[in-house]
Design goal:
The protein is built from 3 helices and 8 strands. With about 150 residues, it is α+β, with helices and mostly antiparallel strands. Strands 1-2-3-4 form a 4-stranded antiparallel sheet. Strands 5, 6, 7 and 8 form a 4-stranded antiparallel sheet that branches. The chain is globular.
């Protein structure tokens, strides 16, 4: 595979273009709904309150995540989620780079004094543990897949 440069940007919901929002929803549907065979309502009304990190290559969205600030799901904890890398771009380290960028941006937005809580797919616990997240729950079904609540104290 010819590896090209990934361009990283972050935007508020209001800053997203229609094409960017469409690409986000399409990529999330490709992976979470089709690839993982998980039927759920992806647009959950949180997107309009989030900061969105987009990784593009030659204009195509290949990596994405959102940062949910304090006050959306919890007054004391924020979250990162919908962490995704397109299937043809996996195993290149993009997921790790994406999570590192998300943690850094979260800290700029919210501050290190507020933990980051995620609903991690249980199969990815080790991946998130590499970034300092610790499991705080037993596995449970969420959106049809086994998940574990994980927390990052900084």
């Amino acid at each position: 595979m010819n590896i090209r440069m990934i361009t990283w940007t972050d935007k508020s919901y209001e800053e997203l273009t229609k094409d960017e929002l469409y690409a986000i929803l399409r990529l999330r549907s490709e992976v979470f709904v089709v690839e993982q065979d998980c039927v759920y309502l992806d647009p959950d009304d949180n997107d309009r309150h989030c900061r969105h990190i987009l990784g593009t290559e030659e204009g195509r969205l290949v990596a994405y995540m959102r940062i949910i600030p304090l006050g959306v799901e919890s007054e004391t904890e924020g979250s990162i989620g919908r962490i995704i890398v397109a299937a043809d771009h996996r195993n290149r380290g993009l997921g790790h780079e994406l999570v590192e960028r998300g943690i850094a941006l979260y800290n700029q937005m919210v501050g290190k004094e507020h933990p980051i809580v995620i609903h991690a797919q249980s199969q990815l616990e080790r991946f998130y543990a590499e970034h300092g997240f610790v499991a705080t729950s037993s596995p449970f079904l969420f959106e049809g897949l086994p998940h574990t609540i994980m927390r990052l104290e900084q």
